[in-house]
Specification:
Blueprint (H helix, E strand, L loop, with lengths): L13 H6 L3 E2 L13 E3 L5 E3 L5 E2 L8 H10 L10 H20 L5 E6 L5 H8 L2 E7 L2 H11 L3 E3 L9 E7 L8 H10 L1 E12 L20 E2 L2 H10 L2 E9 L4 H10 L4 H5 L1 H6 L9 H17 L1 H9 L5 E8 L8
Parallel strand pairs: 5-6, 5-8, 6-7, 8-9
Antiparallel strand pairs: 1-2, 2-3, 3-4, 4-10, 9-12, 11-12
Helix pairs in contact: 3-4
The structure holds zinc ion.
């Protein structure tokens, strides 16, 4: 796919080979390619010299997944932000996911979303004709989705779910786990023959990620993918990538620049102890200021549309999307 011809994090990239001169000792194996050679990245992060995956060393700590889940996403009553702005952003994201599913030929059938948030995506996909259900680790997130939207939601990890799904959606989930290949494999095992998996993750090879205030530098992100590393993870999980692309959402540059101006950096964002203590310097303002802030964000996003589209086309948008099918099912018509 020519959009990724310029992906310098591909394992054959001369730039990466030369950077291995600065190899550093890391505590474990790459969670995607299982090699052990790393180069220093930003803050405490390491980049795999072979597949380009960026790893938070917390990923090698026993029990890190559960500890981070408890620290940052612990139960409390889940109260989603239902402001008009947030609903607008959720609708735009949902429309993009639907368009990408349809482009991959998925139009109806049984659909599972892993990690459901406010439930907005499931509602959008239900309205588009899918038979939807969700799974989430949080009882209060599930309760909100059931009561507010009448959605069917299992409170369980994907690995404990039975069934065969025509579509599984995992948007911004895989970067939270220390074994991304295992989670993708669990999804593949629950795909019906001919089913497709839609995965979206932050793109550490995006131009936005070169700014210290990039919104995805977070203590609870254990791995950071490039498009090439995500495709490799999918293949190792028994999936055949059908389509991959990057998106540059209209808030990407606005938030990364604003947070950089406010002094946010990966150094205090990524180390969980520091982040937990630090006051949130970049939360969205409220009241009239909040409306002006979001209006400025939308205006900047609309005005920069041609640039954002070009950025996404060359594989440097801040979100990577991959659609994959079971590698053990022959391609139709082949
Ligand atoms: Zn690797």
């Amino acid at each position: 796919m020519n959009a990724f011809a310029t992906d310098s994090t591909d394992s054959t990239s001369p730039r990466l080979r030369s950077s291995s001169a600065h190899a550093v000792a890391a505590a474990g194996r790459c969670p995607v390619c299982e090699r052990t050679e790393f180069v220093a990245f930003r803050a405490v992060l390491f980049r795999c010299a072979h597949c380009g995956l960026v790893v938070n060393p917390d990923a090698w700590r026993e029990g890190a997944d559960e500890a981070l889940e408890r620290e940052f996403f612990d139960e409390g009553a889940y109260v989603p932000d239902e402001s008009a702005w947030v609903r607008l952003f959720e609708r735009l994201n949902a429309a993009r996911t639907l368009a990408q599913l349809r482009a991959a030929g998925a139009r109806t059938g049984r659909l599972l979303e892993v990690g459901i948030g406010s439930g907005a995506l499931l509602v959008h996909l239900r309205d588009a004709g899918f038979d939807v259900e969700g799974c989430d680790l949080s009882e209060s997130v599930a309760r909100h989705a059931r009561e507010r939207h009448g959605l069917r939601v299992h409170v369980a990890p994907l690995e404990r779910l039975d069934g065969a799904f025509d579509v599984i959606v995992m948007n911004h989930v895989v970067e939270h786990v220390s074994d991304p290949v295992g989670l993708l494999r669990a999804a593949r095992e629950r795909l019906a023959p001919g089913g497709v998996l839609h995965v979206a993750v932050p793109n550490v090879a995006s131009w936005d990620a070169s700014l210290p205030g990039w919104t995805s530098y977070q203590p609870y992100h254990l791995v950071y993918f490039t498009p090439g590393a995500l495709a490799l993870a999918a293949r190792r999980a028994g999936l055949r990538p059908l389509r991959r692309r990057t998106n540059e959402p209209f808030s990407g540059w606005f938030l990364a620049l604003a947070r950089t101006a406010l002094g946010c950096s990966p150094h205090d964002a990524v180390a969980s102890a520091a982040a937990a203590r630090a006051p949130s310097r970049a939360s969205s303002p409220a009241g009239l200021g909040g409306h002006l802030y979001r209006a400025a964000m939308v205006t900047a996003g609309l005005a920069s549309w041609p640039l954002r589209a070009a950025q996404a086309r060359v594989g440097r948008g801040e979100e990577v999307v991959l659609i994959g099918a079971r590698a053990d099912v022959p391609v139709e018509g082949a």
